Amino acid sequence: MYAEVLIEYKVKSLDRTFTYIVPENLRDKIKIGMKVTVSFGMGDSTINGFVVNIKNDVNLGNLKEIISITDEELILNEELLELGKYVRDTTLCTLISAYQTMLPSSLKIKTINSKYQKYECYLKLTMPVDFVRSFIESEAKNQNQKDILNALIENEKVLKSKFSSSSVNTLIKKGIIKEVKELKYRINKENVRVENKVVLMEDQKRCFDEICNHLSEEKTFLLHGVTGSGKTEVYMHLIDVVVASNKCAIMLVPEITLTAQIVNNFYERFGGDVAILHSGLSAGEKYDEYLKIMRGDAHIVVGTRSAIFAPIRNLGIIIIDEEHSESYKQENTPRYNAIDIAKWRSAYHKVPLVLGSATPTYESYARALKGVYTLLTLPKRVNDAKLPKIKIIDMKEEMKKRNVVLSSYLKDKIRDRLEKREQVILLLNRRGYGTLVNCSSCGYTFKCPNCDITLTYHKSTNSLRCHYCGYYTTKPSHCPECKTGELKDFGLGTEKLEQEISSIFPESKVVRMDADTTSKKGAHERIIKDFKEEKYDILLGTQMISKGLDFPKVSLVGVISADSSLNIPDFRSGERTYALLSQVSGRAGRSGLDSEVVIQTFNPDNFTIKMIEMGTFIKNYQYEMSIRKTLKYPPYYYLVGIKICSKIYEDASKEASKVYKYLKDNISTESIILGPTTASVFRVNSVYRFQIVIKYRFDEKLVNALREVDEMYINHKTVYIEVDMNPYYI
């Protein structure tokens, strides 16, 4: 018997299988999809890999044997093996990297999994109960031995840790009891379902019924519901029906912050039938949750992007909440979009895919209007709660009054909410203290030595940090250039905003939620829980606070700098700005309180800002779509982004021109090639980046041309290529 093994190796040219002999002792155990340890290359070096095929005969000589099976229980099933090929073909990655991305960190190919397994030790009887009773009466030496045996007469097994080790060891030596180890899940909720007492409103019931009518079909639904319209309740009712039919569900959310709140809702509804998968879990927890899904001990998977690869076999529905979120697109290899993977799995299992959002992507909305997706709407909030009032503040006028951070109007509104003991959310989509630091004498500005951006000042650690490559340094007391000038920070980040709020409202309790305050495990959950329990009056943070969170006492939302996302040179900037402002506005008034949203901007006449004020998604959609049609952007054209990267500027520039010429000669003349130009951030982590963008509609030559370009640079000494199909940013 022989096995074809796909090994984990960084060299792209080795993205192929190698044949090994299956030794006699493994022939009854080996299966396709298993991880095995093999010898590879010269000497005795070992490496792990996946068995992708098993043969009885091969016409090859000098073959090595498989050394061992890495894990008999964890197997990539037939669906996931096929899905890996789809990821490889659509993202142009290697097959091994496609399989790697399906696994949590504790299950990567070159990781030894045994250290992540956690066991609980139990005791069980080995003798008949009558014999044990007789032993208790005649031979038991002490009360501890009697307690152990009486407990085992009443129970099939008992925890070893509850009893003294000496008595346990004595009874084991006598052969009356034995010790058994059982795998223990670190996250182990009560497997008790709470009775569903929530009755769906008319609009919710209409959407629920429509999806229920197609539970055995490959069909994509776009659930477009205003913030607070009860989309999550529709999701849970659908999952209720699916699980009742002995099938499984995958529910994706975009952020860890959302995962924490939604998971609690799901635990309350479905108990231990829920498994969670996201980057905030420890390696051991990820291992447990993955194993729980594989064993069928959980029928519901809730998680972020990578949870779409959960090894569910009997899938009944896939739900993607906040489908507009860019976090569903992976920005490093393989550059997949979780929504594309969900569509593939929906087709494979012939089950519905539900995409939900108050601000769906314009590509999704266009597909819904064309009938490619089925459009379902929730136009009103639950219990007819009012949407918040929107107030636009012109900060040009406020600057004349020396109101640099907060307008006088927003200050008054915050004060009013504090007096009413209601809560406030403030959005500033920029972390840190100051966005740049420079010298007041010579004008020297601190920049990242590795990237073409200024360093951000973080006052709490007195450090200057690059948010691209992670470089940081301590802020000096004097200018390193002229040695005498005073250093000043400019711009506004969440850290400075927190200080400003605490200064203006000293009686308030303020909590900040951004990448700096949530870096420790459990920080997201703690902040959300504390704010919901009203331990804080004001929550301020970056875009992670804008989506999906439900705080009943929030009646005021303030947006400190609404222009930051509008100024990004990207065709999606208007769409993103509308989504961000609309989503954060939706955090206010969800429980029926009179609520208001105050948006501070230097561009009050901007069309997108005006549409937020009017609450008109469709008009902003129509406006943006007219621009995209003229300029040939999605959904009218597809995009490919190609980055040509090198630490040597001249090499990157020269090879970018070669790539452009090759593409021009080898793809359809109807496709449009833009570039090469420098990328939006030209140098990142000491790597120079040139960019080519391709716009196309139907181009049969394109994928082969891209694959050939990619292969040209597999062994290049100084240049590498990054190909991104349907990029979110260009």
Concise overview:
This protein is an alpha/beta fold and 730 residues long.
List the uncertain runs.
none
The structural class is alpha/beta
Shape, principal axes of CA atoms:
globular
CATH fold-level name of the largest domain: Rossmann fold
Q: Provide the gyration radius in Å.
A: 29 Å
Structure description:
By secondary structure, this protein is α/β, with parallel strands linked by helices. The chain folds into 6 domains: 2-116, PriA, 3(prime) DNA-binding domain (GIY-YIG endonuclease); 119-183; 202-383, Rossmann fold, CATH 3.40.50; 385-431 and 493-630, P-loop containing nucleotide triphosphate hydrolases (Rossmann fold), CATH 3.40.50.300; 436-490, no CATH class; 638-725, Alpha-Beta Plaits (2-Layer Sandwich). The protein contains 20 helices and 30 strands. The strands form 7 sheets. A 7-stranded parallel sheet has the order 11-12-10-13-14-9-15, with helices on both faces. It has a 6-stranded parallel sheet with strand order 16-26-25-17-24-23, with helices on both faces. Helix 19 packs antiparallel against helix 20 (702-712). The longest helix has 18 residues, at 649-666. The model has no long low-confidence stretch (mean pLDDT 91).
Summarize the topology:
Blueprint (H helix, E strand, L loop, with lengths): L1 E6 L9 E5 L12 E6 L6 E10 L10 E10 L2 H14 L3 H8 L16 E7 L3 H10 L4 H12 L3 E2 L5 H9 L3 E7 L18 H11 L6 E7 L5 H14 L3 E5 L3 H15 L3 E4 L5 H13 L4 E4 L11 E7 L16 H12 L2 E6 L4 H9 L3 E5 L10 E6 H6 L7 H12 L3 E5 L8 E4 L16 E3 L4 E3 L6 E3 L12 E4 L3 H11 L5 E4 L9 H10 L5 E4 L12 E6 L13 H13 L10 E6 L5 H8 L2 H15 L6 E9 L2 H18 L5 E13 L2 E10 L5 H11 L6 E7 L5
Parallel strand pairs: 9-14, 9-15, 10-12, 10-13, 11-12, 13-14, 16-26, 17-24, 17-25, 23-24, 25-26
Antiparallel strand pairs: 1-2, 1-4, 3-4, 3-5, 6-7, 6-8, 18-22, 19-20, 20-21, 27-29, 27-30, 28-29
Helix pairs in contact: 1-2, 1-10, 3-4, 6-7, 16-17, 19-20
